Amino acid sequence: MQIEPHDPHHAAETDLQDKGLSHNSVGVVGSVVLGISSVAPAYALTATIGILVAEAGSKIAVVIIAGFLPMFFAAYAYRELNKVVPDCGTSFTWTTKAFGPYVGWLGGWAAILATAIVLSNLAGVAVQFFYQFLGDALNSETLSTLWENRGINMLTCIAFLIVATYVAYRGITTTEKVQFILVGFQLLVLLTFAVTAIAKSGSAETGIGFSWDWFSPAGLTLSAFIAGLSGSIFAFWGWDTCLNVNEESKGSEKTPGRAALLTVISILLTYLIVATATQMYAGVGTDGLGLGNEEISGNVFGALAEPVLGDPWHMVLYLAVLASSTASLITTFIPTSRTILGMATYKALPARFASIHPRYLTPSYATVVAGVVATPARGRAQPRTRLRCWWTHGERRLRVAACSPSARADLCSLWAAAMAIAAASGI
Length: 427
What we know:
The chain has 18 helices and no strands. By secondary structure, it is mainly alpha-helical. It is globular. It starts with about 25 loop residues before the first helix and ends with a helix.
């Protein structure tokens, strides 16, 4: 590798290599939009609100804020690292400078494999909501459950991955324009849902009045707090995408760091507003529409959309969740491809992985590789099933998620695909 050891100071280091990416293409607002789209707030909320209530009861706001704090401090630390090393390889480059090339190589591969798994699972989530939306729109139970067919699920997932790969391949400006639409739409729908839920909370059967006590940790046990915190941290995943577009940003040393901080703050406010409104309308009971009801905890918006927004406007909320998962799928190609590009630029991967498209100025080869590597995992297990197992096994959730045969199979298939592609490229 050609990265020199880090000499601590507050100016950008001079040994960084230009990779040929499009410069001055993304501003602060665009970077924030990319970060929010990667987090997928609409999907994260519908998947986690019920889980947080099951663990923390009415103290949802407490665990959301608790999950925000480590993310905020991490974003602040990333901002400082980016000031000194504004490199799209981010954690790979920073770790290499801090701990040496071997640790950096391992960190880079860990990031690539993690995001590749996320890509495959996001495709699965998008497919599920796609067929459920079509089924509800056309009033077809058969169509709404079509995602459960393994063959159809895999083929549709591949179609989603191809579309997402194409958008990411076309350049950062194309991705940014698409995300402005998808993110703007889902945030507008979430705000509309929150306002309507608050307005109707007084007449809702299970509704409860607002209380500042929801923001106090008093009465929350340590075990419930830790369990809820795990779900909250999961809901913030993805904000660091802002840093991976640092070389394509206007002011690469400052803009990405500011965008990262603004992203986590924006996500916090979105979660608090929507979660509080949902709690006011549905309550935290275990019956009916109560958020503690296990029958609706896996997809809260699926149960509350029609009672809150009415028919046919409830379909807009379903569409927002679909847009959320699709937006996240597209944006997650950014950290994967940029990490691969950074590793290839500094000789941790073959030079071919550093190929830049002459017209779109994107890491074209790395982007296609990310899409191909994400495909094998789709033949193993349904992502929502594995996510549900993670949460419903209580204190065993981390062990179940990490050690389940399907998770090991995903990792093995992804690693085998990565090694096959690397071998074909001349490693």
